Fold Iron ABC transporter ATP-binding protein.
Amino acid sequence: MDIKNLFFSYHAKEPFIAIDELKISEGKITTIIGPNGCGKSTLLALIAQQLTYTAGEIYIEQQNISRLSRKELAKKLAIVYQQNEAPEQYTIRDLVKVGRYPYRKGLNSLSADDLTAIDKAIELTGLVALQDQRLAELSGGQRQRAWIALALAQETQYLLLDEPTTYLDLHHQFEILDCIEKLNKNANMTIIMVLHDLNQAFQYSDEVIVMSKGKIIKSGQPTVTMSEELIKGIFGINVQIIEDIEKNKHILPLRK
Ligand SMILES: Nc1ncnc2c1ncn2[C@@H]1O[C@H](COP(=O)(O)OP(=O)(O)OP(=O)(O)O)[C@@H](O)[C@H]1O
């Protein structure tokens, strides 16, 4: 994905989001990090064409995606928001069926392709046994996986996730991140997500994008990009980057 000269403002004055050039690699996991209010969700929403930018272009495979119809775009790119709402009486399967809307014509019944995509999405998210359970009866982690399954049923190359681990306990946070990693590795999906946990960004991302005040400060491989100095500069906290016996790096926040 290529983003060029992207400008956006919620208010008419100066642009809030200002990005000259940003490339997001296909087939990789890219995580956007940065302090509260720096524009992470706004950037995701701009990529997903949920907000109209004042200038700029976003290309997927040389195609300017602002020119695509909603259905065409929904075949290329799916987004899972931080908070998602659906009728509580829906079962997981009902919800996942919604992901087939870009492929459906009118109110026709589901095609064989639709059913295959729905089954695959439910399987990839580990929800086969729970598929007839109502959303109201699910835990936060199961519910999050159900929304990811809806996005998968869209059969897109790109999956965008806005803070997919919010409100989940540590076990379920890792469950979701492992599920996302599997989608990337096994289904070759390009993942663009927002995370607050810097260690999780470190461990699960091929690339990170560091934002501050609507701008991209740095991007690249996490271990190269996220230095102690950069984290101090962006978040105003002292950290130490340490290595465990398996040579994995971890960010250790220090009290001032
Ligand atoms: N609909 C809106 N109208 C006006 N201002 C908005 C709107 N949505 C967000 N903002 C403002 O834009 C800025 C960026 O918000 P955004 O949600 O993109 O940040 P973020 O980095 O995702 O933050 P967080 O980490 O807190 O989720 C904030 O100052 C926010 O108040």
